[in-house]
Amino acid sequence: MGMNVSQGKAGGEPEVMVDINTTPLIDVMLVLLIMLIITIPIQMHAVKMNLPVGNAPPAAPPEVVRIDIGDDGVTLWNGAAVPDGRALENQLTAVARAPVQAEIHLHAARRVPYRDVAAVMASAQRVGATKLALIGNE
What we know:
single chain
């Protein structure tokens, strides 16, 4: 039994291998093939649903309450002046306790101090009004 061991060139350097190592390429391709085989049956499943037939009744538009705060600090509730903060809070309480809350649109003039706007927002939060929108802040 003999073994042929060559030393390459006369200088003792091994020969350079010029072939591409295809093992990692084959491994990646096999993984991709397995993933494809696994995911195709999942995409073929269908969920059968019994959807209602017909048209839904049109939804009624929500009631809107408009609160305006003028440059002079006067607060208006749908165009009517509100005398003080307690009266405003009573009206907000009535809106918050309604079965279907109305939308509250708060519109403040450009030069109104922020504390006036924050006071109205805090009153709405305190009584539990959840549908509050700031209008005209574009």
